Amino acid sequence: MAVTTHVPVAAEPEASAERRAPTGRESQVRMTWRRFKQHQLAFVSLWIVVLFYLVAVFAEFIAPMDASTYNPRYTYAPPQGIHFVAVDPDGSWHFGPYVNGYKTEIDPEALRRVFTIDPEVRHPLGFFVESEPYRLLGFIPMQHKLFGTVEPDAPLYVIGADRLGRDQLSRLIHGTRISLSIGLVGVVLSLVFGVIIGGFSGYYGGWFDGAVQRVIEFIRSLPTIPLWLGLAAALPRDWGPLQTYFAITLILSLLGWTELARVVRGRFLALRTEDFVTAAQLDGASDYRIIVRHMVPSFMSHIIAATTLAIPGMILAETALSFLGLGLQAPIVSWGTLLQDAQNIRTLAGAPWLLSPGIVVVVAILAMNFLGDGLRDAADPYGR
Amino acid sequence: MASREEYDMTYLFNPRSRRGVHAFRLAAVMTTAVALIAAPAYAQQQAPMLDALVEDGTLPPVEERLPDNPLVVEPVDNVGEYGGTWRSALRGTGDNAWIARTVMYDGLVRYNRAWDEVIPNLAESWEVNDDATQYTFHLREGLKWSDGTPFTSADIAFAVELVQDPDYPVGGTFMTDPGNPMTVEVVDETTFTFTFENPKGLLLDELASVNGSTLVSLQKAYCSQFYPPYNPEAEQMAADEGYEGWAFMMEDKCAWGQETQRWANLDLPFMNAWVVTEPWTGTASRVVFERNPYYWKVDTEGNQLPYIDRLEMRVSESTEEITLMALNGEIDFTDRHIATVANRPIFFDGQEAGDYRLGTEVQSRSTSLVLQLNLNHPDPEMNALFNNRDFRIGLSHALNRQEIIDAVFTSQGEPFQPAPRPESQFYDEEMAKQYTEYDPELAVQHLEAAGLTETNGQGIRLMSNGEPVSIAVDVISALQPEWLDILELMQLQLAEVGIDMEINNIDRTLFYDKRPSLDFDAQVWAGDGGLDVVQEPRYYFPANAESVWAFAWQAWYNGTDPEIAEEPAEWAREQMELYDQLKASGDPAEQERLMVEILDIAKEQFPLVGVSLVPNGYYIAKNNLRNVPDEMKQAWLFPTPAPYDPFQWYFE
Amino acid sequence: MLSFLFRRLIAMVLTIWAVSFVAFAIIQLPPGDYLTSYMASLSAAGDRINPETIAALRERYGLDDPYVIQYFKWIGGIVQGDFGESFEWKAPVTDLIWGRLGNSILLEGLAILVMWLVALPIGIYAAVRKYSLGDYLATIGGFIGLAIPNFLFALVLMYLWYVYFGQTLGGLFSPDLEGSPWNLERILDFLAHAWAPVLVLATAGTAQLIRVMRANLLDELTKPYVVTARSKGLPEWRAILKYPVRVALNPLVSTIGWLLPTLVSSSVVVSVVMNLPTAGPLLLKSLTTQDMYLAGAIIMLLGILTVIGTLISDLILAWIDPRIRYGGR
Amino acid sequence: MTPLTPMDANETLLRMENVNIVFSSPDEADIEAVRQVDFTLTRGKTLALVGESGCGKSVTARAILRLLDKNARIDHGRILFSADGGEPTDIAALGSDSKAMRSIRGNRISMIFQEPMSSLSPVHTIGDQIDEMIMLHDDVEQKSARERTVELLDQVGIPGPRQRADSYPFQLSGGLRQRAMIAMALACKPDLLIADEPTTALDVTTQAQILDLLRALQAEYGMAMLFITHDLGVVAEIADEVAVMYLGDVVEQGNVFDVFRAPQHPYTRALMSSIPRMTRRAQRERLNPIQGNVPSPRNRPEGCAFTTRCPHAFAPCSSVHPGRTPAGEGHWARCHLLTHEDAPRVEGILQPGVPAIEGDRA
Fold first, then answer.
1. C80 and C115: one domain?
2. Which terminus of chain C is more solvent-facing, meaning fewer CB atoms within 10 Å of its CB: N or C?
3. Is the CB of D184 inside 8 Å of chain C's CB atoms?
4. Residues near C25 by Cβ (< 8 Å), separated by ≥ 6?
5. Which of A179, A215, A221, A231 is the best residue to mutate to test the C interface, defined by the most C CB atoms within 10 Å of its own CB?
6. Is residue D330 part of a domain?
7. Is the CB of residue C79 less than 8 Å from the CB of residue C172?
């Protein structure tokens, strides 16, 4: 539900005067960082987010299989889980990660494969195992995966397989790239609009500010979802996956920038009156210089915070659009499209592991929200 | 307007036309015989819910409501009991097809349950002249609309008149076929004659098909008030009502056949077993039908049909909701939307809890997916390639069909090309199985024979202009998720032999928009015409607009889209001539011979690549719902389950 | 105050006018028109329709006119309260949407009510006990709600409900009460159906609300007047509730108006999954079938709702915040 | 430090005994913002608390009302308050939100603040805010409360009080706001009024008016006043007694006359010499501001806080915290100069072994 967030201007309360004195000499960045680290939740989240983006970048390497590698014999295969210790009947112990094989039969009446994990069969796992040659990020030729089964064509479905016997984990990892980048690209675009427009309107104020405010008001007065639907439905429908992908991000950011603009403007209004800006003006520094050299750095952290807080919205929007059949479509692999596969009773009943994208989305969004909150609190301790 | 959801639609008559045509005389004789026995040998019974109404005189007694010789229906298992509500679901706003499949199917004639005969219905008999240009029908004496007024030849004539009115847009029926104009002549109350310019061998099948309802759905007494020729005020009235013209008001008040608006107007009289009592408006969350007290059929003991009192259809945009309803035993019979391959396991498991059973539906479609390369491709290079038989054979051999069957259809089905199904008398194993074995080497040989010898860096084969072979395939995954799955597998399999395939998962409108511009490499659809070979020859030769693979050729054949119409290849022209002969001929044996010839050419030319035989579908029926056959044929022209006489189903 | 109102009204009219452009653009953007998709479905249904008929229809629906003409026809109608006719239903748009719009507002109104009842106390607590365990729990809880995609939540809810209670959640009324006038029975029936979607919608919105409330209150808590209030000898909670909370509420209360349009649009997804007779699915369908007047009308109404909402917000704000009422600072 | 003597009922209203206040923050070591503060407030008299900003005046004042922020606490010491001359209550021992404490706040002790604008709720009328105060402590209903409010507003010299009662803070001038603030503070006829730099935010003429008003009211209500300011001029004008604070310490206290005439602590002296005097050109001396600036409490020297800036600092200063040393009737200071034999000689300070100038010891 879109509740317009009230962006307060940092007020420095009387009573904290004594506290402020000692910290006053620290650099903005160091101070922010120190405060940030106290916000444990945010600190943990930071690492989670970093992890997510690492996965996104090195998807091909981390994912044990390719997103489209299928195996008819393992449709809807349940999760294997990874085991580390094995005991043979003769009582001898084996250490090291492995997965069990499956026993499969087809139930012709119910039309499905019935899987039973076969504890006898063990497929040992290894790191940096040989694989089909592939190109990391599309240009670095490689033929090793982070981990996988030692025998090349042993089944590996750590968190289960989808309806075509594709490895859900691998698809999840590949989907991460699209979903996270869609969020990032979208936000970066909004940021560009937001900072430039919001910045100038906040700095100059006056009629310019007024005009911008009206525009923002207008854009906000357009009901989001129909707008998405409309624009998404309006995309040339013979566009390829990639074009659609960027079109969608653009659409998302077109509507997303207003919020950022508001934040930035708010900060600018607050800063404009601060002494160091006035000082700079008196020194006859150019507006551009003032904005870029003096003002922007002084609330970089706010921008970062606002940005992190905007990404989750984008991700959710992407999934929602896919759900409505207006966003990305299979065969593109994104969290949204993966969830599309999961959104039916048959999956809930028969293959709940296909809901895993949902969990990942939740984790990612939680992490980013906390990170964003942490950054904001750190950037502006007295304001919030 | 017509249904959005039907993808298995085919049109025109039944699979064994020769027997169909026999049926004319035979059936005529038979029914008169039936009539003799069935006449008031014993007092007719009626549903208890009507007794009160008859008591207080709002309804005449059942004898007066029934025609002189009601149609006697042989129950599937046994004579049933009155009462009960048949609950089902409509998927959102565009699902009028479900009503067509349950309530509306009751034309002049109908198909028998085996789908091999046209039998009497409203018409108790008919005669056809020898060159099949003139048909005379005899309605039952004393048929009545659901409002109690008589149903006569005049109503038929009115329907024809209205449908033929150029200002009134009714989509292609035999009445508006520019290729073969027809006229109607009323002989008397119960007798009328259709006269055609050219032979119309297939009329009875069209009348027996789902489209037959159009002719018997417009009551002259009611509908003529909106029609200027009968009511000079009609235009004025429409204007007052805020319509932009009489036609708009007519469409709205007096919609024909299976038009959705038909169930939005409670005043509209029906000839069907149930009449709508809760209208289907844009805001309705359910549509309700109740028994038509003037229905004109009885069971073998003379009980007026239908047995079931009410039909309750939930309007739901959400298939998941419908699925849960079915699992929860809140749906008494359905075979639509939710009865998919993917859902089979949960419905199977749910039988006990939901107290329902799964029945078998034999599909009329042959192969699960037809890859229709655009043989009229505007780009000469592609055009040449697609028209190269070796290329198509190469593709076919490159497909590992068993893998697809295992993955997508849980090993149900067998490799199958677009060809008549084993159940059809046109079944030709060679045609169905040719080039289906998975053999990459052989595939490569054929591809190279097609001139694709060079490959580029990614191992993609190059056309003579040095361009890599890349086929963009259009698919509407919304209609059948399986299609997308199959394509995703094909994509990888074709890559193995150096053919690049791109999947365009697109919206239906665009799917159709692209055709007239010939602006596509290939489209996929299901293998219609597996049982109704003669009626739906779209994959056997460029027969109609659904023959996407040769759209320009069919345009030439049907005289549509002149701007793109293009003279077909020799072999296709030959087929077209043969089919023309077939349509003209009244003799079933001749028709079969001609069709076989057409099929042989198709087999020889191999224009289309298929995947696997469509496995049987299933229906979901509550355990206490009786007189439902365990196995049904599933088609559109034969609108399952209507031909299995839902009016004689009952709850025990 | 009056001039303020006047200025607002002028702005309102202008915005609505602008919205009408956007709405029209949106419904015209997709290639093809209703008749293309109509033909598509016809041929998919195996039906034929001769080109002349289509041409006739197009002519009759005025789909051949230049956009400008179409626009003015359309807007002209709207000005007279005639939103045109839905192609798909061959029925006046207004007949179709009012009922569903009503349901939307009813449903979302309920959801928002729940949200506020839950979020405000939590938000206040989280602010007063900043960084306490309670604060963390509240935030985490809220965010989880925010993070779960609505359709997933709805679907899982429906399924689990079926599994454990053997009921299918769906719709807003039991069919028998669908058309009936409001009475106790119907209200109860509505609540019996509405709780599920309300739950889904509320969980999605609460986090945001908590966060805003917390942030605003944190700002106010540090203001001197709070100390003054304490120095009067007011009990801590009373001091907080009467002063900072009162002030912190202003920006929130002023968003009530903003919520109006989201009333309708935010429930699209849930409505589709749970088959709720709200405006959302109608809009979705009309957009995909290019039922332009229906789609246009709904977008238009949403726009108008927003503008009215904004006005209401400003009025409320002026009403609760003297600083604005008397044009102070 | 001096032993505790029983409070003289008719004399002493409030006595701070060895109070120290500590700020703790999650990321830094605790800071002792105020240490060993002792002073006494006498009925009907005004004590001025003087010092540079950040020296802990406000904190001390708030401590009396237990209005410290969450991160601050009274570490030890007592704040003895006896309203009706009865058995004194130790405010330091009360729960900050306890009933007892609340019955004192606003009722017996009330406070006015520096920022009249931000110290009044922007969304409630002046009237409401004063009514509330009255209704809170003496149980009367709205109507009569409002009557009293109007009286008060009238009393503090707000024109057209009845109408003004219904206006919002931002509709009043700074001076009027402060008057309203005062009216509120007086609403329950408190025994003690704490005024935290009430005039700092006002322009000079208004300052004067407010000061006069306060003095007048004090006389009328016979209440004691703790007047916090950094402006010695104001002190001279309003105070009977003065306590000088530096970096959390009360370095010198005594009656205004004594302290101004013969300041004993180098810091006090420095303050004095930093204010201009009205003299003839010829006799004018250069103002000599205190060199250096206030260090943060964090790195405050072990001993006398002023060491780092003290012109006379010697051996013990940096290490030993000087005790209270009497320098006359009710006049004392914390400085080693006053006690140590070997302290450097400083003119004007009573040092051991130095004969006092006649009249000094009054």
1. no
2. C
3. yes
4. none
5. A221
6. yes
7. no
pLDDT per residue over C210-264, tens digit each?
A: 888 888 888 788 888 888 888 888 888 888 888 888 888 877 776 776 666 666 6
Nearest Cα residue to A367 out of A33, A53, A34: A53
Contact D31 A22 (CB under 8 A): yes
B403 chain-A contacts, CB cut-off 8 A: 72
Give the distance between the most distant pair of CA atoms in chain A. 87
Q: Which domain holds residue D287?
A: 268-338
**Residues B547-562: tens digit of each pLDDT:** 999 999 998 998 877 8
Instruction: Look up residue A288 and give its DSSP letter.
Output: H
* pLDDT, tens digit, 9 for 90 and up, residues A204-216: 777 887 788 778 8
Which CATH class, in words, describes the domain spanning B42-104+272-365+616-652? alpha beta
Least confident of A212-226, B98-112, C150-164: A212-226
Count Cα neighbours of B100 within 13 Å in the Cβ-side half-sphere. Answer: 30
Query: How far is the C-alpha of C246 from the C-alpha of D125, rounded, in Å?
Result: 14
Query: In the predicted model, what is the mean pLDDT of residues C181-206?
Result: 86
Q: What ipTM was assigned to the predicted interfaces of this complex?
A: 0.74
Q: Please, how many CA atoms are within 13 Å of residue B273, restricted to the half-sphere of its CB? A: 28
Q: Are residues D146 and D272 in the same domain?
A: no
Give the mutation candidate from B471, B485, B620 for the A interface (greatest A CB count, under 10 A). Answer: B485
| pTM confidence score | 0.78
Name the one residue in this structure whose structure tokens are 């039906």.
C47
Among A230, A237, A383, whose Cβ lies nearest the Cβ of C287?
Answer: A230
Q: Which residues of chain D have pLDDT under 70?
A: 1-10, 26-27, 85, 275-289, 353-362
pLDDT for residue A21 is more than 60: no
Residue contact B410–A73, C-beta within 8 A: no
Question: In the structure encoding, which two tokens stand for residue A14, read together?
Answer: 């009387």
**Token duo for residue D297:** 């409490």
User: Is A233 within 8 Å of C30 when comparing Cβ atoms?
Assistant: yes
CB-based touch C/B (3+ pairs, under 8 A): yes
Hey, is the C-beta of A24 within 8 angstroms of any chain B C-beta?
Answer: no
Chain C contacts to D (CB-CB under 8 A): 223-225, 227-236, 242-243, 246-247, 250, 320-323, 326, 328-329
Q: Which CATH superfamily is domain A45-57+172-379 in?
A: MetI-like (1.10.3720.10)
Any chain A CB within 8 A of the CB of D30? no
Neighbours of A363 (CB within 10 A): 15
Residue of A nearest to D59 (CA): A15
Record the tokens describing residue B37, joined without a space.
């026995």
Write down the pLDDT at residue A2.
36
The verdict on C192 and C288 lying in the same domain is yes
In angstroms, the CA D361 to CA D350 distance is 10
Pair (D178, D310) in one structural domain: no
Tell me if residue B155 falls in helix, strand or coil. Answer: helix
Backbone φ and ψ for A136, nearest 5 degrees, come out as: -70, 135
Topology of domain B106-257 in CATH is Dipeptide-binding Protein; domain 1 (3.90.76)
